[in-house]
């Protein structure tokens, strides 16, 4: 019996995560080589498995050369073999594997593995959200917190929580470790498609920072901004961003 798309996404993310842990723990690679080896190993597994299991679907991966073929497809798998390569190479836990299926541009199915934590979060198995904290905790980059996030956190009296990869930050909201993930520093479709699918399935607010929907499988795969947050904070965060003065 063949797997459903959701089962396939979860299995792909799980196995890719296990491969990445094996590569990292083998002790044969320097820190400089580790990220590249992990990216290539996970990517090769994912693209071969998807092409075998879903040969008629399109495919977009951070680690493979993009082509226009996917643009004519209704169903497109969007993957990030290692989201947070630096964190992966440093032996941290805040990195992820993203496997998503966009259908007509909508992030419909997603699985995000957090291999170092032994977790896979799935769009088809939403869990109850933990109780949200007030004031909210806001996730920001370890190195470059965006001005909009800093301003919103200040306006809400919120606490800043620094974390690595986009997937780890998005899943921290799903897991109840924070309430808001606001990103304005620019990303690509593979950075957010799977996390958005999982977050939406858990009842979180997901959108661009102007409130418009996130649309995938575009010719230009750059996505400037993103908001994933608890539903009760969505409207207020969007209003605060809208009211911010333009950057000098």
From TrEMBL:
This protein's record includes keyword Hydrolase: no
Keyword field: Magnesium, Metal-binding
Protein source organism: Glacieibacterium arshaanense
Record-level GO BP terms: 3'-phosphoadenosine 5'-phosphosulfate metabolic process; sulfate assimilation
Keyword Metal-binding applies: yes
Pfam families assigned to the protein according to its UniProt record, in alphabetical order: Inositol_P
Residues that coordinate or bind Mg(2+): 62, 80, 83, 191
Molecular function terms from GO: 3'(2'),5'-bisphosphate nucleotidase activity; metal ion binding
Protein name, per record: 3'(2'),5'-bisphosphate nucleotidase CysQ
Cofactor(s) required for function per UniProt: Mg(2+)
Signal sequence extent: none
InterPro entries reported in the protein's UniProt record: CysQ/Inositol_MonoPase, Inositol_monophosphatase-like
């Amino acid at each position: 019996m063949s797997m459903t798309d959701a089962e396939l996404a979860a299995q792909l993310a799980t196995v890719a995560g296990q491969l990445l842990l094996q590569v990292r723990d083998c002790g044969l690679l320097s820190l400089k080589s580790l990220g590249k080896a992990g990216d290539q190993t996970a990517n090769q597994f994912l693209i071969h498995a998807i092409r075998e299991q879903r040969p008629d679907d399109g495919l977009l991966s951070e680690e493979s050369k993009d082509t226009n073929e996917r643009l004519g497809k209704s169903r497109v798998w969007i993957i990030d073999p290692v989201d947070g390569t630096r964190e992966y190479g440093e032996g941290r836990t805040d990195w992820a594997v993203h496997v998503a299926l966009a259908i007509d541009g909508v992030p419909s199915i997603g699985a995000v593995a957090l291999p170092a934590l032994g977790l896979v979060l799935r769009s088809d198995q939403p869990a109850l959200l933990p109780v949200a904290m007030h004031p909210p905790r806001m996730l920001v980059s370890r190195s470059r917190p965006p001005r909009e996030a800093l301003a919103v956190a200040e306006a809400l009296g919120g606490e800043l929580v620094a974390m690595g990869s986009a997937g780890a930050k998005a899943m921290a909201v799903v897991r109840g470790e924070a309430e808001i993930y606001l990103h304005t520093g620019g990303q690509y479709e593979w950075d957010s498609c799977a996390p958005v699918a999982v977050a939406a399935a858990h009842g979180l607010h997901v959108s661009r920072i102007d409130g418009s929907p996130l649309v995938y499988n575009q010719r230009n795969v750059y996505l400037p901004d993103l908001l994933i947050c608890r539903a009760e904070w969505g409207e207020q965060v969007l209003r605060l961003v809208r009211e911010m003065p333009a950057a000098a």
